[in-house]
Amino acid sequence: MAKDMREADLKEMTPEEFRNMVRNGKWTEWTGMACRGYAQANLAIVPKENALDFLTFCVRNPRPCPVVEVTDPGNPHPALMAPGADLRTDLPKYRVFKGGELVDEPTDISKYWRDDFVAFLLGCSLSFDWVLREADVKFRLLGAYSTNLPTIPAGIFHGPTVVTCRLVKGDRDAVRAIQLSSRHLFAHGAPIHIGDPKTIGINDLYKPDMAHGDSPNILPQTADEIALYWACGVTPQTVAMAAKSSLMITHFPGCMFVTDKLCSELVVL
Fold first, then answer.
1. Which of 29, 89, 109, 222 is most exposed, with minimal Cβ within 10 Å?
2. Cβ atoms within 10 A of the Cβ of 114, count?
């Protein structure tokens, strides 16, 4: 798709318009600039037999896994966050894990859907990126990284925490980014680390495990940029691999579910 679509038309779409475009196969890419001001969500789908353990895992690890909705078994429609949506078709791209292995990255999961599936929508930091932009906070989103920070296990679910890194320009903007994101607990809240990436097990900041945005090439960090790291909703994907769970379906990193809720509706005052 043309760049002018990404930067202009895309951000002015309503969530329903954007999801319809995705459902019809007309958008299969990063959602970072979609639907200005609306909350986006990570997705994790597990069989009912694993749902309680996964919910417990999320409760024990609220920073990487802030739950915003849980569907009834077999129901792909998120009644709270977007009643008219369909979680089988309305994300640009998915990942399918079986036995801890990534087996598919489809743009539609209808063929995988089962009557015992429970879907979890987890808050996403792309949501508060709109808030940072509106506050004129200058930042660059580099991507997502697996870390040496452990999660608290629950049942079969365990594994490392994943983080996203943003390089924020200057002390003032870094403080402002921390203040603003701390009000958005549904979107991971404040950063969980600042500064040296090696402290949390990231060996190369310029080679994220999962790149976000349009360009795989990351310009070097400048002297006035401060690295801030937020917990990330890609964590369940590392958990699926570590736990070797029989089946888990997730979003593809950066290809989120766009909800009908404005970020301002979910903020902690």
1. 222
2. 12
Chain-centroid distance of CA 243 in Å reads 20
> Which domains are assigned to the chain?
3-124+236-266 (3.40.1640.10), 127-235 (3.30.2040.10)
CB 264, CB 37: distance < 8 Å: yes
Q: Which of 24, 30, 7 is nearest to 252 (CA)?
A: 30
DSSP 8-state secondary structure symbol assigned to residue 157: B
Q: Would you give per-residue pLDDT tens digits along the chain (269 residues)?
A: 444 566 678 999 999 999 999 999 999 999 999 999 999 999 999 999 999 999 999 999 999 999 999 999 999 999 999 999 999 999 999 999 999 999 999 999 999 999 999 999 999 999 999 999 999 999 999 999 999 999 999 999 999 999 999 999 999 999 999 999 999 999 999 999 999 999 999 999 999 988 765 455 688 999 999 999 999 999 999 999 999 989 999 999 999 999 999 999 998 76
99: left (phi over 0), alpha (psi -120 to 50) or beta: left
